[in-house]
Amino acid sequence: MKHWIWLTGIVGLSAAAIVTSERRKVDGPASPAAVLYLVADTEQELARMPVNFTRMSDDEEIQIGDEIARMYGASFSENNKKEEIVTVEKYLNQVGGILTARAHRRLPYRFHYIANEYMINAFALPGGHVYVGAGLLGLMDSEDELAAVLGHEIEHVDHYHCADRAQLEQALRRIPLGGLVAIPVFVFQAGYSKDQELEADREGTRLAVQAGYSANGAIRMFEAFDRMYQRYRMQRVRASSPQEELSDVSMQTLEGYFRSHPLPEERIAQVQKMIASENWPAHAERDLAVAYIFWTQRAQSAMNAKNYSEAEHLASQSVKMHGDQPEAWDVLARAQFAQAKFGNAATSYRQFLEKDPKKLPVVEAYALALAAANRQSGASEFRHWLESLRGEQPRNAEVEHVGLSLLAGDATRAHKFEENLRTSDDQRAPDYLGMLGWWYYLAGDYERAAHVFDEVVQQRPGDVKLWLRRAWVEIEVKRFSDAIQTVNNGELENTGMYREHPEGERAMAQAVALWQAQDTDPALGNFDRAVAGQPEWGNADWVRTLYSPRVAESVQQMKAERERRKKDRLAEKR
Length: 574
Prior knowledge:
By secondary structure, the protein is mainly alpha-helical. Among the domains are: 247 residues, no CATH class; 73 residues, no CATH class. A three-stranded mixed beta sheet has the order 1-3-2, sandwiched between helices. The longest helix has 25 residues. The N terminus is likely disordered.
């Protein structure tokens, strides 16, 4: 009778809170942590209530777990045909199988991967389904850390924590045993009591050690949690970019995890005490066999954040571990190109093209990297690559090869190719002509490039890249007003097509045109926007190699003027 008095009180307080919240307007940011807060706090409070029940059988527990897993399976593995998910789940089941062979209860354990980088958690369902989020795997460096996490979740099942939680829900909701499939999965994602969590840590670590893993894996996992949480506490300021906002989502989710689990220092101290008392030997940890997947994801995130050095480091690690990754080679190449490491970028693009030679933007990027690395040898290297291909060549291969030959001094071939394009009935001819126009620009033939771009923008009025390249050419032939108008193409602005092109290049084209027209202040404003949106413009080697001498000189002059004004302002304050 006493536990129903508890339950009535909780329900009454909850109803009062709902009524009060509905009547009062509260301004506050939505947070994924809020869900975990609510569930974790509620579940931990309910776990203290004196509810008595007869424990369900293993068969009943397995059936309930299977049904819950089936219900949530679509949302957890909607992309389960992706090679990445298949690879990670196979690995999880391999490591999990080593551990469950030593578990006390003989249950059909199955391990699942949630391919969500903001899922910094793992949880188990009754009967042996264990789920691990990509965000959690991304924090790991070794298989021993994974073994500690899986061991922890296995012990939540092995020690009936999951089953008891399910039966507690059954008693409180007054539902039949079969109705337990309707329990929200958040019930199992939320933490258990402090004693249960520490028990899962102890027994999960013991299980991992018995399977041959290092107990240091558990310690390093808790240390990683602590670093992430401390970082979150230091980043309470409002995010200033979409990338930071997404990072904040994962941080808030992690805070929800900490709210429902013991603090890392307490968990570390417990494992250290076990190591000392059990005399567990220290030995080297094993590599996390799927780490390359998460290095590639982190490299892409670093690339999106314009942290090119970090992106290069992570992508390089990834391809060293597993070279058959076009995505990783692409990130590596783009990061190297952005840092003016053109020779390295050409090599990385070549590795990408070994896997997918028909990717036209990468073919173009490879050709530009070869040109930037060495104008004289670029054409021959590109030809060697073409000769190595089996089957049909990429559609844009000829124009890129002609362009590289132009830079090496063969203008005749380029002129002939241009004539053929103008008389061709190929629907892609204007696109190839625009590509050739940029090779003319790189070769310093600005008049011919201007003629080409004046023609092709009429045939491809919605192509942002062509319009911006036309603006660069107009700057070289001193049509500064035309260049400014070209960049400010209202038609492209209204259709939103500029969103698909780097804001930095557009701003810098306008900055250079205004600077050359001696409209200094607006030029510097655009210069600042360009460097902020595309940091490559602050790299003199990158600008000098990829653009004309006039552009390189203008950029350096604007940079110097910006520094001069900064010093003047500092002097005035003194």
